[in-house]
Amino acid sequence: MPPEAEVDEIVDLISDAYAWRILVQTRNEAKSVDALSDACDADPSTIYRRVERLQDADLLTDDQMLDPDGHHYKVYSANLDAVHVYLEEHGFDVDVDRREDPSDRFTRLYEGFK
Question: Degrees (nearest 5) of the Cα angle 101, 62, 66?
């Protein structure tokens, strides 16, 4: 289980309508802030704030892209597979399943064969 502060932040984030939409929109395809702004019907400043919070919680990753005209911009991808919430005697337990980077998975699998 993650530390209590992290659990509170994650539960708060996934209950936020804009953060929820950002995660859904970036689940299968990386998107720019402009694309997310259109998809979420929100100002880019609202999207930037949520993106920053999602990245701080390691629920969203970014990649740098290059336009044909030479400008750079970022696209964002969800780094979340599932959040499991369990009601226990002492309160709630939360497990967060993040996506694993393919190179990290290969390393883990390779080391498992040693």
Answer: 115
Q: pTM for the complete prediction?
A: 0.79
Domains and their CATH numbers in the chain: 4-113 (1.10.10.10)
Residue spans of alpha helices (H) in 2-94: 4-14, 17-25, 33-40, 44-56
Give the whole-angstrom CA distance, residue 1 versus residue 34: 35
State the Cα–Cα distance between residues 33 and 18, nearest whole angstrom.
12
Query: Can you read off the two tokens belonging to residue 97?
Result: 């399943």
Strand-strand pairing, 82-88 and 72-78: unpaired
Read off the tokens for 94: 């939360």
Return the closest-CA partner of residue 12 out of 56, 75, 61, 62. Answer: 56
Q: Is the pLDDT of residue 107 over 80?
A: no
